[in-house]
Amino acid sequence: MHKSNFFSDISSSWDDQHAGREEIERLRLFAGHFRLQAGERVLDVGCGSGRLIPLICEKIGPNGSLVELDFAPGMLDIGRGKPNGGNVTFMLGDVHAMPLPSKNFDKVIALALLPHLDDRASALKEFHRVLKPGGLLVMVHQMGREALDRLHGQSSEPVRRDLLPKKSVLESLLAEAGFSGVKILDEPDQYVAWGKA
Ligand SMILES: C[S@@+](CC[C@H](N)C(=O)[O-])C[C@H]1O[C@@H](n2cnc3c(N)ncnc32)[C@H](O)[C@@H]1O
């Protein structure tokens, strides 16, 4: 099964499992990692059901804009049904070749996407391409590498072999994609990577 079908199939239960009150409160704390500012143009890659929409919109305000991109139509449909301030666009697309112009965003945010990428190197180059010079890529996971890899190992196909890279591997990939000022945290309760375009 293609991963886009897998994620579309689980989209109707995604928020029940991942958008409870406690989890959203925890995400709110995580949103500090995005360093968002009013008026920014933001791309949320692998946006899923749009859990981040209210948290991002709150920070960027009415003069900012947000593109929610995912390759699973079912996930996007759920996001589209959520309230937003009118400055959110939904886009069906694969992060390995995004239908977006270059140098277009202040921030690219990826929540729980990295393990699922088929070709990390090309996806990271795409993130670099669409960021404005000096723009920031932030990739976040709400658990550390060991715990997340264990969780995916116990999951069903086609995600059971979707693993997070070791810090040293990701550092090299980000540098090869053109990112500078790379910082990566791999702690029991979070795995976060930042890179500047
Ligand atoms: C684990 S879910 C996370 C969803 C959302 N970011 C969240 O945390 O609620 C991973 C998401 O990435 C999407 N995805 C995986 N690979 C993708 C790709 N190559 N292009 C676009 N979306 C992708 C999936 O469809 C899914 O919605």
Write out the CATH superfamily name.
Answer: Vaccinia Virus protein VP39
**Terminal Cα span:** 34 Å
The gross shape turns out to be globular
Strand order of the largest sheet: 3-2-1-4-5-7-6
Overall tally of structural domains:
1
CATH architecture annotation name: 3-Layer(aba) Sandwich
CATH topology: Rossmann fold
Alpha plus pi helix count? 8
| Beta-strand fraction estimate | 15-25%
Structural class per helix/strand content? Answer: alpha/beta
**The level-1 CATH class:** Alpha Beta
According to DSSP, the number of beta strands is 7
Low-confidence stretches: none
- In round numbers, the mean pLDDT is 96
Cofactors and ligands = S-adenosylmethionine
As a whole number of angstroms, the C-alpha radius of gyration is 15 Å
Can you characterise this structure?
With 197 residues, the chain is an alpha/beta fold. It has one domain (3-196): Vaccinia Virus protein VP39 (Rossmann fold, 3-Layer(aba) Sandwich), CATH 3.40.50.150. 36% of the residues lie in helices and 25% in strands. The chain is built from 8 helices and 7 strands, in the order H-H-H-E-H-E-H-E-E-H-E-H-H-E-E. The chain has helices at residues 3-9, 11-18, 21-30, 53-60, 73-80, 120-130, 145-153, 167-176; strands at 41-45, 65-70, 88-92, 105-111, 131-141, 180-187, 190-196. The chain has a 7-stranded mixed beta sheet, with helices on both faces. Strand 4 (105-111), helix 6 (120-130) and strand 5 (131-141) form a beta-alpha-beta unit. The longest helix is centred in the middle third of the chain and has 11 residues, at 120-130. The model has no long low-confidence stretch (mean pLDDT 96).
